[in-house]
Design brief:
Layout: E1 5-6, E2 15-17, H1 20-26, E3 30-34, E4 40-44, H2 45-56, H3 63-74, E5 77-79, E6 86-88, H4 91-97, E7 103-108, E8 111-116, H5 117-133
Antiparallel strand pairs: 1-7, 2-6, 3-4, 3-5, 4-8, 7-8
C-alpha cells in the first residue's frame, strides 16, 4: 500500500527519484499513465494488469469504458526503475500533468500519483473543506 506525501524534483532529463518507501513495491516494474484531475498514476505492473483485466471485461458496447480505456492504455508507459530508484517520465505525460521541476508524489493506496506542486496545492485548497465535511457512509463501517 502506498501512503504519504513526498516532494522530489524532476531532473533536466525528466527523471524522478521515487520516494524510498515506494521503491521496493515498484522495483519489479511499473506503469505510468494519465490520471484524473491532470495528475499521473503510477501502478506496480501487477496492479496495472489487474485493472486492465477489469477494463477488458467491460462490454465493447459500453461507451464510457471504451473511452476511458483508450486514454488509459494509449498514454501508458512501462518501465523498471534504475538502481537509484529513478524513472523517466515521458514528455507527453509531463506535458499532460504540467510537470516542470517541482512535483508532489503521493501514496494513494494501490497507486502512486504524481502532481505538479502548484496543482496539488490548489487541489488541496479546493477539496480539504469538503473532506472535513463528508458524512458517514463513504468509508466501510460508517466512518
Amino acid at each position: 500500500m502506498f501512503l504519504g506525501t513526498h516532494t522530489p524534483r524532476l531532473d533536466e532529463k525528466g527523471r524522478l527519484i521515487l520516494p524510498a518507501k515506494f521503491r521496493e513495491e515498484l522495483a519489479g516494474g511499473l506503469v505510468i499513465t494519465k490520471g484524473q484531475e491532470r495528475c499521473l498514476y503510477v501502478f506496480p505492473t501487477a496492479e496495472f494488469r489487474r485493472l486492465a483485466e477489469e477494463l477488458q471485461a467491460q462490454p465493447v458496447t459500453h461507451k464510457a469504458a471504451r473511452a476511458y480505456g483508450r486514454v488509459f492504455f494509449a498514454s501508458a508507459h512501462d518501465e523498471v526503475p534504475d538502481k537509484q530508484g529513478r524513472v523517466t517520465i515521458p514528455a507527453h505525460l509531463r506535458e499532460y500533468a504540467g510537470l516542470d521541476r517541482d512535483v508532489v508524489v503521493i501514496g494513494a493506496s494501490n497507486r502512486v500519483e504524481i502532481w505538479d506542486q502548484q496543482a496539488w496545492e490548489q487541489y488541496l485548497a479546493e477539496n480539504e473543506q469538503a473532506f472535513a465535511e463528508i458524512e458517514g457512509g463513504v468509508l466501510p463501517g460508517g466512518l
